[in-house]
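RECORD TYPE: inverse folding
INPUT: structure tokens
STRUCTURE:
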């Protein structure tokens, strides 16, 4: 360098320490200023150029039109080039004049000129690529300015000293140059116009400001500030959120992930194919004798390679994530600069003669380095967290798409609950892991660097500490492995708990009717106890790991110091060594405890990865299973020698079928229960696994399942099902499907919102909507699975005539109709009779009658000769209701029908009442009932648009202290106080240890040694171990408390939900209640305790830092108030916004899972109508809506982090500054203590705010759980002072005394002043048009509805005076809906284990189920799947009959439960009831009058009052309403 500078005129040395360092007025030599200092910015720009150009080539946003700003930037750039080259030419002119300057005066202007030219060209190139604000150039101009400040000062000082300007030309050009670069810096901070052809412009109403933010705004996340201010002023709402960035949207993310996953699947298949080709012959087929050889060959191959989902994830998200890793690397390296600066600072304090500016420079450098670290760290986090949300969106999307494709056997192994768990919990695991993933390489790097610097400081003694660290790694590893094992075990418990809870909530009505809640509560509690047992073990384990975590750095430093001072007496522990080592040990603390944590999270995620990969590798339905293109001419459906099964491991359901359906014909499929009628329809849809044969279906398909699948959408949307609206056709279809009368009754007509699973429609209405959907789809082939069973006989006839029959809307289309109704068979073109999965007979009606086969005999038995009856009767009557809601639990389903004017009034009145209630409910005038804003309860508010289910609202405003107080009470007040006390003791011990160390380092050195070393070490060790012990004790205490809280909160929630009245379930979607049991309970179990630990640790850490700094440098008190003010100000902004974003996020999460579980239950319908793509789009939209609130949440943390860490960096700056200012009164030990504490505070402050607001966000889970633990409950189950006698009711006499009932306060009565007496042993049929109040009567008997006035007496006991369970357990009902729970058949018959096996077998025999059960290898332990899906609807109905036979109580209520059963089984049931319940009182709601013609009496209800009540014969003679009904049915 000296060669460039020293020769020639104006030459100087490159470096002169006397001029620069050892002086009170430092300066740099002209040579240094002109060379290295001037080149630094140029080196930076050229070094970053290649990468930046590569980035610009890939990043094209459209070009920006040349603006005034851009012209100005270019002009300044060109001017700079001119100015620098003017210097160059001036140097050349010197040669001419014989004045030879040093070579540096040629080199530097040349380099500067070329670089300025490059910067100017870059401005233009960026404009063409659409870059509005250039980070590269801002940094370049900033560096240029910083480097020019030194010559700026130097030139002025030299001129002042010498009294004149020596080199006037260069002096002038330099100041022009300085002004221009300063101007460039200012200009570069402004951003340009948006690009001209930018795709996002004009499309988005609320685009994310990040895209248009300038470089500095992005660096500091300033662009988030507007949202923070808005969130502070008012609670944020969905509409305030920005649109999602294109690259974060599900559409983009999922398609990228799917592409990679398909590649993986293709690669996994390859080796297998290669192995097999070896044995194929010339034609490519494997001859039989060679197949064996092929098998052998295959088995020699390694086990079939599963496609790796992990690799697909890495390929999709890896590159973006790596950018974040690069930032992490820089941040790690920077974190080691401050300990070195601390070392310099302590040396400066120890050296009184050192110039003061050294100290100020070190303080400034510490501050600058900390700020750099903060900025870079948050850029790292930004990349990492965005990768996290993309990952979650990708995994959710891919699981959703897979769920639409999996086979039925795969569905059996993964229930809805488990798949939802994959989506919620397992996908979240990945998001959590991503945060820590970089620690896998970063932690070892930090450990190695720390050890290197420690070695320099303390020499080989450090090896003792390192040895201890290495010993701790296996301990942490063991803890991590054990934690993983607990995790897996706990996931198992959690899955089964959620699965059972899902079923309980789906079948809650049946539990209430049977009084089975205690048994199922017990099952849940047993699972929960197991779950908490595992949680407790995991919590104790984590307390031990906290102890090692906390004590490790201390023990390492202790052992190192011990060895250092013991090895050699001459080893002095001075302040520099002690505190620099301590700050390095503090850096070590994070990687040391992060590593085991990362390993355990990795372990958990690997479990999740396996679960997801297992699910994604499930077999998919073969789309080629049903041929849709080629088919024998003239036919719409053909099956040749087809055999089908539901799963490979199950017996074949349909054997060697040969069926041909001519185009445009009506085919009826009949046969007994369980003979495979539904299976046949499923086989045609391609839902079953084909074992052999061919199936072909020509054209598009419409499908009406046996149990209607209704979406949570408007009635119109349910019918249109994604098709465009054609008003004329739509009206015609409503009329044909007999829906017009229903529309008059529904509050919003066809715009009425239908609740989850169609709860506000009766079974018949649901079935008709399902049928209307099929008709509207205008398909070529219609597969109708018993659609007539759920509707009344006259409606069935109407539908058959107008829709299905030869003259109906579908006349001329191909229709396959499964039916139990005999009376429509004569109009079918072809009848297929199934028996045991085979076609027993097939032919036209007349041909089958002539064949004299089983079918002909069946017809003779069940169809009277009277032709008139043949037309009129209907064997297809009943409402096949869904679990959630039978016809009339609530006014919105007041078994209304088609032709009852009153009901419409009832509904309208109900709506009016409700809107009044809802408007008053929030008013100030009614404090007692005032709901907190946004209670999540779903009011059954059917407003004028007929919305039943209110959107789940988010809480607003800050969480009330009462919620914290509730949690503290659940933890235990003593426990809470103890934990805080232990933490404060631990902080005191830590401060004590460090002050002792500081005192020790100041001990005078006599003869090269220090005295009292052993005492010093002893006290230091004692204080340190005390800290660790206290931490462990506090962790244990907190673990015990939090598990107790988790138990109490879950028990309260469960107890309340089991006691909630039925009306609550009719108006609250299942997903919302389930969310409380899954997500919220998970938060209470696992998230809140760890938030509390972190919050307490960071709070006491920050407090002790302030105490230490204040006590060493009291001057610090001056800045503490402004800093605290800034800190609290930022925290307040952040907390308000972040809290609301978290709430919006959790509210937008539920719809993803609700929609998902709705989809999973309706997959067969969605696939039949080929609407998978539309549903995928809906799911993506819901996921994106959730991401919209996740993204600002991530940014809010970055925004907060930068601002709060800036406060922490100021603490470092002032601690160092005040140490420099008052160095005369301070010793090095105290300065070391103060600054090393300050260096830790930055992270602590940041985490304190984060944890405080995290805790506030998560405590919302307690609020949500508490809210659902305090909803209104029904009457007590048992009233101790008022229990009926044990043998009650012994006669079975039922008396209604002046009885009236309404669905809810303020509504009209549904039953009015009923007074009647049913004597013990009487058989009474209850009939009436739909909406007359038949089902309401039975609900009153079980007190599902409570009396408005009057009483019901059973054997003289007023049922309102006894407990619900005493009442319900003494009555028996066979409900309309056969509900089964997953578990054994034994559990489904007798959950309390009251009855013996003999009694059960007898009940099964009487209910004609024994053959089926004996054919199962497990017998009574036969596993029923979720909802009893592996039994046919008829078989489920028979299980319900068997339950009734087991109970054998004196009163039996039949809610006409035989719709899904063929006539033969129906006769069996009726006969069984007649014989087995001979002496009992039987109340039957009858749709089929022939079942009650031999009853003692018949009660005819009309508009909620008794119209007629007498024996059937007398009523027919009286020629009243009953006579009319009997005549319609051909019985009179």
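DESIGNED SEQUENCE:
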């Amino acid at each position: 360098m000296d060669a460039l500078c020293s020769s020639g005129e104006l030459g100087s040395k490159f470096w002169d320490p006397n001029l620069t360092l050892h002086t009170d007025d430092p300066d740099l030599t002209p040579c240094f200023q002109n060379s290295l200092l001037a080149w630094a910015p140029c080196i930076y720009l050229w070094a970053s150029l290649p990468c930046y150009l590569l980035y610009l080539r890939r990043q094209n946003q459209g070009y920006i039109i040349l603006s005034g700003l851009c012209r100005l930037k270019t002009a300044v750039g060109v001017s700079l080039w001119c100015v620098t080259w003017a210097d160059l030419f001036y140097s050349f002119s010197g040669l001419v004049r014989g004045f030879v300057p040093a070579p540096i005066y040629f080199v530097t202007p040349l380099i500067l000129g070329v670089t300025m030219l490059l910067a100017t060209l870059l401005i233009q190139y960026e404009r063409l690529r659409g870059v509005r604000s250039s980070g590269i150039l801002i940094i370049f101009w900033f560096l240029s300015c910083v480097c020019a400040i030194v010559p700026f000062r130097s030139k002025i000082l030299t001129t002042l000293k010498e009294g004149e300007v020596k080199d006037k030309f260069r002096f002038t050009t330099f100041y022009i140059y300085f002004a221009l670069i300063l101007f460039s810096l200012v200009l570069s901070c402004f951003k340009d116009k948006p690009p001209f052809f930018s795709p996002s412009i004009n499309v988005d109403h609320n685009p994310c400001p990040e895209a248009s933010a300038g470089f500095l705004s992005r660096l500091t996340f300033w662009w988030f500030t507007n949202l923070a201010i808005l969130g502070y002023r008012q609670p944020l709402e969905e509409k305030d959120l920005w649109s999602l960035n294109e690259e974060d949207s599900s559409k983009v993310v999922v398609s990228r992930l799917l592409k990679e996953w398909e590649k993986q699947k293709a690669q996994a298949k390859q080796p297998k194919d290669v192995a097999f080709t070896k044995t194929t012959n010339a034609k490519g087929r494997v001859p039989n004798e060679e197949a064996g050889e092929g098998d052998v060959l295959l088995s020699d191959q390694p086990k079939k390679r599963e496609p790796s989902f992990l690799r697909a994830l890495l390929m999709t998200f890896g590159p973006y994530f790596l950018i974040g890793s690069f930032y992490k690397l820089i941040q790690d390296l920077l974190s080691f600069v401050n300990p070195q600066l601390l070392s310099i600072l302590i040396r400066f304090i120890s050296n009184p003669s050192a110039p003061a500016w050294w100290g100020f420079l070190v303080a400034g450098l510490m501050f600058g380095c900390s700020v750099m670290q903060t900025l870079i760290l948050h850029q790292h986090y930004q990349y990492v967290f965005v990768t996290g949300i993309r990952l979650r969106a990708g995994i959710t999307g891919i699981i959703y798409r897979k769920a639409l494709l999996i086979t039925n056997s795969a569905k059996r192994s993964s229930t809805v609950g488990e798949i939802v768990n994959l989506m919620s919990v397992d996908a979240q695991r990945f998001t959590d892991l991503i945060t820590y993933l970089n620690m896998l390489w970063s932690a070892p790097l930090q450990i190695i660097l720390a050890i290197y610097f420690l070695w320099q400081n303390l020499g080989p003694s450090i090896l003792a500490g390192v040895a201890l660290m290495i010993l701790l790694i296996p301990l942490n590893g063991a803890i991590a492995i054990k934690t993983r094992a607990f995790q897996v075990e706990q996931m198992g418990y959690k899955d089964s708990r959620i699965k059972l809870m899902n079923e309980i909530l789906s079948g809650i009505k049946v539990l209430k009717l049977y009084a089975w809640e205690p048994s199922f509560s017990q099952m849940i509690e047993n699972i929960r106890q197991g779950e908490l047992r595992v949680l407790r073990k995991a919590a104790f384990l984590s307390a031990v790991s906290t102890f090692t975590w906390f004590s490790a750095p201390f023990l390492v430093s202790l052992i190192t110091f011990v060895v250092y001072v013991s090895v050699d007496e001459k080893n002095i522990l001075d302040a520099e060594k002690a505190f620099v080592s301590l700050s390095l040990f503090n850096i070590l603390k994070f990687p040391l405890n992060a590593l085991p944590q990362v390993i355990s999270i990795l372990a958990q995620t690997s479990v999740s990865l396996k679960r997801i990969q297992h699910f994604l590798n499930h077999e998919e339905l073969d789309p080629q299973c049903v041929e849709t293109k080629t088919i024998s001419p003239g036919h719409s459906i053909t099956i040749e020698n087809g055999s089908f099964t539901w799963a490979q491991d199950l017996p074949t359901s349909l054997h060697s079928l040969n069926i041909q359906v001519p185009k445009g014909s009506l085919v009826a499929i009949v046969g007994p229960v369980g003979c495979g009628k539904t299976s046949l329809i499923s086989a045609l849809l391609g839902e079953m696994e084909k074992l052999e044969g061919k199936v072909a279906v020509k054209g598009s398909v419409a499908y009406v399942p046996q149990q209607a699948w209704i979406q949570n959408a408007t009635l119109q949307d349910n019918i249109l099902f994604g098709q465009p609206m054609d008003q004329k056709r739509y009206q015609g279809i409503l009329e044909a499907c007999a829906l017009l009368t229903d529309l008059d009754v529904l509050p919003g007509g066809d715009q009425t919102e239908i609740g989850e699973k169609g709860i506000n429609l009766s079974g018949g209405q649901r079935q008709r909507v399902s049928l209307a959907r099929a008709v509207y789809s205008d398909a070529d082939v219609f597969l109708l699975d018993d659609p007539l069973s759920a509707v009344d006989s006259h409606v069935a006839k109407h539908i058959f005539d107008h829709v299905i029959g030869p003259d109906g809307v579908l006349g001329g289309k191909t229709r396959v109709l499964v039916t139990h109704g005999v009376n429509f068979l004569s109009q079918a073109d072809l009848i297929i009779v199934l028996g045991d999965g085979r076609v027993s007979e097939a032919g036209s009606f007349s041909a089958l009658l002539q064949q004299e086969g089983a079918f002909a005999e069946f017809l003779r038995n069940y169809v009277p000769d009277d032709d008139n009856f043949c037309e009129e009767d209907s064997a297809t009557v009943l409402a096949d209701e869904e679990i959630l809601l039978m016809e009339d639990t609530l006014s919105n389903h007041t078994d209304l029908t088609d032709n009852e004017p009153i009901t419409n009034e009832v509904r309208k009145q109900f709506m009016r009442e409700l809107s009044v209630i809802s408007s008053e409910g929030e008013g100030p005038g009614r404090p007692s009932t005032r709901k907190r804003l946004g209670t999540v309860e779903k009011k059954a508010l059917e407003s004028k648009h007929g919305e039943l289910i209110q959107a789940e609202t988010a809480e607003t405003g800050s969480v009330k202290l009462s919620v914290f107080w509730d949690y503290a009470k659940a933890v235990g007040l003593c426990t809470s106080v103890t934990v805080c006390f232990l933490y404060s003791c631990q902080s005191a011990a830590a401060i004590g240890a460090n002050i002792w160390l500081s005192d020790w380092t100041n001990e005078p050195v006599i003869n090269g040694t220090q005295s009292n070393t052993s005492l010093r070490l002893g006290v230091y060790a004692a204080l340190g171990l005390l800290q660790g012990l206290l931490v462990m004790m506090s962790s244990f205490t907190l673990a015990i408390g939090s598990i107790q809280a988790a138990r109490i909160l879950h028990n309260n929630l469960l107890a309340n939900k089991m006691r909630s009245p039925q009306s609550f379930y009719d108006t609250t979607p299942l997903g919302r209640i389930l969310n409380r049991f899954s997500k919220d309970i998970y938060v209470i179990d696992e998230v809140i305790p760890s938030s509390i630990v972190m919050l307490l640790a960071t709070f006491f850490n920050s407090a002790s830092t302030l105490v230490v700094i204040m006590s060493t440098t009291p001057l610090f008190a001056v800045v503490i108030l402004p800093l605290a003010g800034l800190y609290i100000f930022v925290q307040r902004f952040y907390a308000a916004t972040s809290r609301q974003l978290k709430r919006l996020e959790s509210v937008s999460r539920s719809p993803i899972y609700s929609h998902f579980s709705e989809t999973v239950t309706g997959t067969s319908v969605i696939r039949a109508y080929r609407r998978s793509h539309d549903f995928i789009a809906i799911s993506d939209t819901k996921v994106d809506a959730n991401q919209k609130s996740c993204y600002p949440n991530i940014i809010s943390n970055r925004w907060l982090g930068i601002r709060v860490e800036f406060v922490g960096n100021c603490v470092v700056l002032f601690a160092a500054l005040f140490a420099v200012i008052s160095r005369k009164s301070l010793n090095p030990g105290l300065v070391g203590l103060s600054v090393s504490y300050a260096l830790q505070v930055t992270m602590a402050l940041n985490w304190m705010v984060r944890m405080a607001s995290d805790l506030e966000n998560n405590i919302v889970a307690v609020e949500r759980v508490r809210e659902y633990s305090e909803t209104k409950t029904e009457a007590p189950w048992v009233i101790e002072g008022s229990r009926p006698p044990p043998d009650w009711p012994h006669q079975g006499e039922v008396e209604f005394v002046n009885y009236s009932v309404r669905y809810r306060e303020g509504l009209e009565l549904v039953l009015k002043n009923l007074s009647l007496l049913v004597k013990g042993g009487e058989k009474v049929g209850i009939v009436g048009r739909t909406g007359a109040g038949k089902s309401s009567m039975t609900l009153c008997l079980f007190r599902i509805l409570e009396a408005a006035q009057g009483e019901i007496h059973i054997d003289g006991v007023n049922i309102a005076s006894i407990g619900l369970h005493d009442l319900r357990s003494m009555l028996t009902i066979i409900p309309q809906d056969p509900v089964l729970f997953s578990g054994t058949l034994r559990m489904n018959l007798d959950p309390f284990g009251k009855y013996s096996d003999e009694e059960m077998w007898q009940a099964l025999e009487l209910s004609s189920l024994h053959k089926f059960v004996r054919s199962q290898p497990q017998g009574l332990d036969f596993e029923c799947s979720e909802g009893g899906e592996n039994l046919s609807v008829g078989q489920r109905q028979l299980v319900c009959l068997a339950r009734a036979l087991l109970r054998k109580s004196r009163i039996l209520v039949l809610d006409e439960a035989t719709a899904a059963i063929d006539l033969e089984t129906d006769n069996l049931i009726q006969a069984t009831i007649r014989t087995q319940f001979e002496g009992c009182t039987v109340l039957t709601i009858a749709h089929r009058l022939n079942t009650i013609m031999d009853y003692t009496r018949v009660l005819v209800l009309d508009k909620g009052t008794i119209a007629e009540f007498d024996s059937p014969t007398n009523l027919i003679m009286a020629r009243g309403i009953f006579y009319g009904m009997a005549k319609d049915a051909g019985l009179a």
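NOTES: The longest strand covers residues 635-645.
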